[in-house]
Amino acid sequence: xxxxxxxxxxxxxxxxxxxxxxxxxxxxxxxxxxxxxxxxxxxxxxxxxxxxxxxxxxxxxxxxxxxxxxxxxxxxxxxxxxxxxxxxxxxxxxxxxxxxxxxxxxxxxxxxxxxxxxxxxxxxxxxxxxxxxxxxxxxxxxxxxxxxxxxxxxxxxxxxxxxxxxxxxxxxxxxxxxxxxxxxxxxxxxxxxxxxxxxxxxxxxxxxxxxxxxxxxxxxxxxxxxxxxxxxxxxxxxxxxxxxxxxxxxxxxxxxxxxxxxxxxxxxxxxxxxxxxxxxxxxxxxxxxxxxxxxxxxxxxxxxxxxxxxxxxxxxxxxxxxxxxxxxxxxxxxxxx
Length: 337
Hints:
The chain is elongated. The chain is mainly beta and 337 residues long. The protein contains 1 helix and 16 strands. The protein has one helix at 64-75; strands at 48-63, 82-105, 108-115, 118-129, 133-134, 140-141, 146-156, 160-169, 172-181, 201-212, 217-228, 241-251, 256-267, 284-298, 301-316, 320-333. The protein has one domain (26-227, 242-268, 282-333): Porin, CATH 2.40.160. It has a 12-stranded antiparallel β-barrel.
């Protein structure tokens, strides 16, 4: 069986979708969207302009210090006076436009892209008081009480810029790229459900794919680091984050693949700044789940869909949950077609 390699990019962008980073990242949001760079991670398509519609959903919960890390702006630091639990959910739609240049640079294909996410977040905070608690709004709650605080939003996120370069040699494909989070999206100081970050961020990621088109075997790995600037309104700086994603996939035909994908996240430096009142906590999480892709033609336009589900485990200082991802990608224009 010989396979035609997909020409459609599925590029990981930073996004305010994740409600999983808690104490280990400000406002329960990670800059890099874990799980978005798995299948064909090291492959750059031929010159042209491509559109990817990324749909991301997450649901999870947290308790103890992890929950306090999420709820801090709504509850104040009540770690010693109450038990706090969190239920969180998010849906993000992120259209991504990527242009691959016709000329090569250093023997590789160069591309540039932009993403503007929008969607919804919802966080439910459950509090059981152990002593008299004073909330930031000066509300005083006596001991032995249970109450709930809800926060939700539907809004735009920060735009994210992307640059990449990739190479091909036989069955090997590899790429390096950078993402820049531009902090101009709507943001509210007291909200814990912002899609925007209100600070600059840069992610650098390298990825490699080995694909045997005769047997249909694929191994893809992407690894990188995320660097965060300080939020000027909260004096909070999220520490440096390490992430690695992988996929083991069988290509059964030119149109259908099925495999296993996962990611691991590890914060390698603690949060800092006056606003990091809980100290330099560092988060960790691993996730694993199935992934499939299906390619079909709409008229003469090839459309690639990618569906994946991952369950999180081995969690420290983060919420724990499940994520789902659906990508729909197709070329807007390809030279010579």
